[in-house]
Amino acid sequence: xxxxxxxxxxxxxxxxxxxxxxxxxxxxxxxxxxxxxxxxxxxxxxxxxxxxxxxxxxxxxxxxxxxxxxxxxxxxxxxxxxxxxxx
Length: 87
Known about the structure:
Elements: H1 5-41, H2 44-64, H3 69-86
Helix pairs in contact: 1-2, 1-3, 2-3
C-alpha cells in the first residue's frame, strides 16, 4: 500500500494507464489478425487496406512506448512480404 499522497496518486494513475495499455495492445493484435486473415483469404483490396491499418496501429504503439521498434518493424515486414506474395 502507498505511504504518501504522491504514491497513492501514482498508484491510481498506474491502474488507469495499465487498462489503456491493455486495450491498445489488444486492438493492435486484432488489426494484425484481420490483416493476416484478409491476406489468407486472397482478397487483395481488402488485404491492402487491412495492412495499412495494421501498420498505422503498430506505429502508434511504438510512439507511445508500448511496443519495441524492432518488434513493430518485424510485424510490418512480415505483413508486407505476405501482401507482396499475394500480388
